[in-house]
């Protein structure tokens, strides 16, 4: 087989990529459809990311969504605090590393603005500009508060 499916991918996209190589007559596997209704769009959360998480849940429930969101919520507060301490102590490489580590999980839960802000913290810290990194951190903290509220509401709606 020679093919490519970019991440993040849906089961439908994977099935489509595999279908030419499946045994004749076997057909492509059906991608499960989520059974839980999709939540209403939120200001700080990209609803397409939530829809993707729902579509990737093989059980057709919100279990994967809850797992990813809870993981993000559990790590984000301490990661932002770690960035603050690292910047205060002029450990810019560490601040960049922590910001980079939180950027993808933020994107995975649809917190696109927060992910961009974390990318700016990383860029500024790597560029030896702690003042700018600190300004981005303050913006990220405010955005994180909105994201946290919206994700907590989303978890309640999908319970």
Structural summary, described in words:
The protein has helices at residues 11-18, 47-56, 63-88, 92-108, 112-126, 130-157. The termini are far apart. 29% of the residues are buried. The chain has a domain at 63-157: HPT domain (Four Helix Bundle (Hemerythrin (Met), subunit A), Up-down Bundle). It has six helices and no strands. Helix 3 (63-88) runs antiparallel to helix 4 (92-108). It has 159 residues and is mainly α. It is globular. Helix content is 65%, strand content 0%. The longest helix is centred in the last third of the chain and has 28 residues, at 130-157.
List its traits.
single chain; 159 residues; mainly alpha; Four Helix Bundle (Hemerythrin (Met), subunit A); 6 helices
How do the strands and helices of this protein lay out in sequence?
Elements: H1 11-18, H2 47-56, H3 63-88, H4 92-108, H5 112-126, H6 130-157
């Amino acid at each position: 087989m020679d093919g490519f499916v970019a991440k993040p991918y849906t089961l439908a996209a994977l099935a489509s990529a595999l279908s030419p190589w499946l045994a004749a007559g076997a057909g492509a596997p059906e991608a499960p459809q989520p059974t839980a209704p999709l939540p209403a769009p939120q200001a700080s959360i990209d609803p397409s990311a939530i829809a993707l998480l729902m579509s990737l849940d093989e059980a057709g429930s919100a279990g994967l969504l809850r797992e990813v969101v809870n993981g993000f919520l559990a790590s984000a507060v301490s990661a932002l605090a770690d960035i603050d301490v690292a910047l205060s102590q002029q450990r810019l490489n560490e601040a960049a590393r922590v910001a980079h580590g939180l950027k993808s999980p933020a994107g995975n839960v649809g917190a696109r603005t927060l992910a961009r802000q974390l990318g700016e913290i990383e860029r500024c810290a790597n560029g030896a500009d702690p003042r700018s990194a600190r300004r981005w951190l303050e913006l990220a903290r405010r955005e994180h508060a909105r994201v946290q509220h919206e994700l907590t509401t989303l978890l309640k709606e999908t319970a």
